[in-house]
Amino acid sequence: MKLNFYLATKNANKLREARHILQGTGILVKPCPAGVIFPEERGKTFEENAFRKAAHLKEFVGDEPVAGEDSGLVVEKLNGLPGIFSARFSGSGDDAKNIKKLLGMLSRYKDVTDRKAKFVAVIVLLGSHGKLTFTGEAEGFITFSPRGGNGFGYDPVFEIEGTGRTFAELSAEEKNRVSHRSAAFRKLAEYMLKM
Prior knowledge:
Blueprint: E1 3-7, H1 12-21, E2 27-30, H2 46-61, E3 66-75, H3 95-105, E4 116-127, E5 130-142, E6 158-160, H4 172-178, H5 180-194
Parallel strand pairs: 1-2, 1-3
Antiparallel strand pairs: 3-4, 4-5, 5-6
Helix pairs in contact: 4-5
């Protein structure tokens, strides 16, 4: 039986990461069909946003399984911000502006222990089984300045706990072994392979 699902995103980086994470599992990650426009994210949680994306795409692909994914950075000292607003934290989808705003808000915290953060990814899978949710997290700290040239989003300022390296200082292979998204997609794969 061929295992596959549509990924409800227009973000090419997320699609590439999902395919890389699931490489070798036999699970095919299909891109969102052209012409699909997702409504603005209005959910109050990562799960709600992931579900809304999946439910919207399901209207276009019928019986095919669909996975919606929402993820973001949660910073303790900022009461969980940027959280569900991670992609548009600065009022735009610009990674550099989002990072600048984040570092500005944390500038008074000089001790790395006050800069504790985590990345969270939530995947909602909709299919014949109904609705299933898979979550992954990565613990770490926000650095004082960006480091590394790989990845996207907040990767240059997120140092993974116990490594001394940011996500942007890791190769795609290294990141996909320890990232929040990788943890969530591996749980999804485990489920699909048992179906």
